[in-house]
Amino acid sequence: MKELELKYGCNPNQKPSRIYMEEGELPIKVLCGKPGYINFLDAFNGWQLVRELKRATGLPAATSFKHVSPAGAAVGLPLSDVERKIYWVDDMDVEFTPIANAYARARGADRMSSFGDFISLSDVCDKATALLIKREVSDGVIAPGYTDEALEILKQKKNGNYNVIEIDPNYEPKQLERKEVFGITFEQGRNELVIDDEFFSNIVTDNKDLPEQAKIDLALAMITLKYTQSNSVCYAKDGQAIGIGAGQQSRIHCTRLAGSKADNWWLRQSPQVLGLQFVDGIRRADRDNAIDLYIGEDYMDVLADGAWENIFKVKPEVFTREAKRAWLDKNTGVALGSDAFFPFGDNIERAHKSGVEYVAQPGGSIRDDHVIDTCNKYNMVMAFTGIRLFHH
């Protein structure tokens, strides 16, 4: 197959639309559904991310994409009991495989943003992963293969219209890439930068103790940023992205946005949230929305009389600002990556509030000394990579 006609482009009025190869065959097969223009943008960006993440860590990887940026990314480490609960998979009577763990973690970190995602898997999609995907609101999945059982499960989703794409894992693109804007062709060399342990060798802070898990988390953060619309910042912990701030014009706004997502991920593990008693039959999306409101500033939207009765069996106590801060202070060992340099120490101040202890950024600001001093104030480890990772 050399080309594939699409229903329309980014919007229904943008026709005609297609993907095609100038030379050779398309490296994909559509096994089910009819993927669209944005679906393929998410699929191909996500596939690059998980392929690279597996190469860097040796672990199966998954990502959950929305609007050409990852909402979550993770490697296939086992789920803790708490993670199984906050990711809503504790009721599944199935043994999770590493690739299923990877997707559960990628989807679960920011369930609000992942609603209606496009999934990318580094490994063959198996039955456990397909059963997990089946219960989520999702547009499609791309993987290097599918077991017969997995494919049968996925083909039942969306009344047989769920998008299932198989990609040739051996496909390598040309070194030059092109795109057209306003009738003008842009050309550049592909970003073939390899992110590995050596990427974080230039540690510029007083504290130079960078554990192996922190290296994995920083690699995950930087590879995630490589395929996230810039400006972007990523918080990571224990092999998964826990907060991604994408497409912000200001670096501090990236750091705040990603930090607030990381905080929400941690707050969902608090006794106050784990103890919420939801009414029987509540939909998964409504449960996610209720938790998001409960731990945020608009908590009265779900606690007001006449509202809480539709969500909870028992009216919860207000999760006070002081109680939230006390719980957030328990979060430690978080890694932070940035796709460009931090111009001010305020980014580090904000990161500290979310438990960040390890930082990787290009460096090169005229205020590098101030940023380093701020890290030293909190005994953080910071590596200068010397490489910017903008993606547009």
Q: What's the mean pLDDT score?
A: 96
The share of residues in extended strands comes to: 15-25%
Order of helices and strands: EEEHEEHHHEHEHEEEHEEHHHHHEHEHE
Structural class: alpha/beta
Work out the helicity level.
25-40%
**How many separate domains?**
3
Kindly, what is the distance between the CA atoms of the first and last residues, rounded to a whole number of angstroms?
A: 28 Å
**Which residue ranges are poorly predicted, with pLDDT under 50 across at least 5 consecutive positions?**
none
**What is the number of helical segments per DSSP (H or I, 4+ residues)?**
14
Q: What would you give as the CATH superfamily of the largest domain? A: AICAR transformylase, duplication domain
Name the shape in a single word: globular
Query: Largest beta sheet, briefly?
Result: 6 strands, mixed
In what order do the strands lie side by side in the largest sheet?
Answer: 3-8-7-6-4-5
For the secondary structure, the number of strands is 15
CATH topology of the largest domain: Cytidine Deaminase, domain 2
CATH architecture of the largest domain: 3-Layer(aba) Sandwich
Q: Just give the CATH class of the largest domain.
A: Alpha Beta
